[in-house]
Design goal:
alpha/beta; 5-stranded mixed β-sheet; 12 strands; binds nicotinamide-adenine-dinucleotide; glutamate dehydrogenase (NAD+) activity
Length: 421
């Protein structure tokens, strides 16, 4: 299966490489190190059979890619989606390398994915798919080598199946092989909310910097899953007004504000936010252009391009999703003075608390949620200020600054280790 890319929907791996080039130019990186960082270190493609409920056999294709291991074991989520492609997973693995480096946690970057529409599978079929995919990628994953986590359409149950499958092969329980697990098998308090909470901390810093009052701000969120729904809830707890949200079936808008908890239970019951009483229905395209102070893309890549970026009304864009803004849109936002809080900073709370979970599993010693949130806040605020300082120094946008910080750290680690043999 191949994915078609166009001017509007650009190849995410090409975007990722372009972003790396920009940072490498600022850093004056020598060509050898550039070449190392440009290429994923390991790529595994697997095709595997799953017996469906009706007895038939389907074959699925999946990937696990480790982009870079210079700063520690590889870390990154697993995505189930019909549009997953090799280039998408390459881009996502590279973004994971930079994300771990921005927040300075000792991991390299990885990502995995299976080409599947999970909504068409029963729970039993999904379990079998997950267990077989885990077995196929067990060549690469392990607590010291590569530690998966949830991403689009995977969750703590998926992680439990991965952990159990890996442990069955080993003959003993290896909780640290994945993060984002349920609490009763080595999960960490606060991990489920971590991506959203990290995003909330970054938004709080950005609104302070821009002299905006978060409690008087309006917010639109695209994507109402783990990242999007929880960040909407947390910001409404900060008294912000959530005026629009969406999922894969469309969006809803109420300029007076949505009751986020009520929208969450509506989605739980009906499988979508569309149809929520008292709100106008809007398309996902129109949602991005609604009047608001803060726009949070929390769905998929390639949502903001050079065209719709001209019509975005928000003052701050916080990327809970990975890769929602293409480089043409970045240029437009910079010229228009719109602050983009880049994915590798804004959604790094998830991997940061995944790191905490991994540390807790390795030590079999668990923290309270308050300890987790406190440590997360310290890391997010410090990282925001590290990126801001570089943005001011080089007079660049926050994305370029985050890349300069991250690529610089990974390049230094690579040079310190040297090239083997
Ligand atoms: P999820 O599966 O929990 O939720 C995804 C949401 O996006 C769903 O509500 C889905 O209906 C919606 N969606 C899908 N296609 C859409 C479209 N075209 N328009 C609008 N909405 C659409 O996934 P998630 O874990 O919340 O991940 C969302 C994004 O956040 C991804 O880019 C992911 O890589 C990123 N992210 C997630 C985590 C995490 O810890 N879960 C961490 C960092 C980054």
């Amino acid at each position: 299966m191949t994915t078609e890319y166009s001017a509007k929907v650009q190849n995410p791996y090409e975007i990722a490489k372009k972003q790396l080039e920009i940072a490498a130019d600022y850093l004056g990186l020598e060509s050898g190190i550039r070449k190392v960082l440009m290429h994923p270190a390991r790529e595994l493609t697997v095709s595997f059979p799953v017996q469906m409920d009706d007895g038939s056999i389907e074959v699925y294709t999946g990937f696990r890619i480790q982009h870079n291991l210079a700063r520690g074991p590889a870390k990154g989520g697993i995505r189930y989606h019909s549009q997953v492609s090799l280039d998408e997973v390459r881009a996502l693995s590279m973004w994971m390398t930079w994300k771990c480096a921005v927040v300075n946690i000792p991991f390299g970057g990885a990502k995995g994915g299976v080409i599947v529409d999970p909504k068409k599978l029963s729970k039993r079929e999904l379990e079998h798919l997950t267990r077989r995919y885990t077995t196929e990628i067990s060549l690469l994953i392990g607590p010291e080598t590569d530690i998966p986590a949830p991403d689009v359409n995977t969750n703590s149950q998926t992680m439990a199946w991965i952990m159990d499958t890996y442990s069955m092969h080993k003959g003993y329980s290896v909780t640290a092989v994945v993060t984002g697990k349920p609490l009763n098998i080595g999960g960490a308090e606060g991990r489920n909310e971590a991506t959203a909470r990290g995003c909330q901390y970054i938004i709080r810093e950005a609104t302070k910097l821009k002299g905006m009052d978060l409690a008087k701000s309006t917010v639109v969120v695209q994507g109402f899953g783990n990242a999007g729904a929880i960040v909407a809830r947390l910001l409404s707890e900060d008294s912000a007004t959530i005026v629009g949200v969406s999922d894969s079936q469309g969006g809803i808008y109420n300029p007076k504000g949505l009751d986020v908890r009520a929208v969450m239970s509506f989605k739980g019951e009906h499988g979508t936010v569309v149809g929520f009483p008292g709100a106008q229905v809007v398309s996902n395209e129109a949602l991005l252009e609604l009047p608001c102070d803060i726009l949070i893309p929390a769905a998929l890549e390639n949502q903001l391009n050079g065209d719709n970026a001209k019509r975005v009304k928000a003052k701050i864009i916080a990327e809970a999703a990975n890769g929602p803004t293409n480089p043409d849109a970045d240029k437009v936002f910079f010229e228009r003075g719109i602050m983009v809080l880049p994915d590798i900073l804004a959604n790094a709370g998830g991997v940061t608390v995944s790191y905490f979970e991994w540390v807790q599993d390795l030590q079999s010693f668990f923290w309270t949620e308050a300890e987790t949130n406190n440590r997360l806040q310290q890391i997010m605020v410090r990282s925001f200020n590290d990126v801001l300082r570089l943005a001011e120094l080089h007079k660049v946008d926050m994305r370029t600054a985050a890349y300069i910080l991250a690529v610089g750290r990974v390049a230094e680690a690579t040079k310190t280790r040297g090239i083997y043999p």
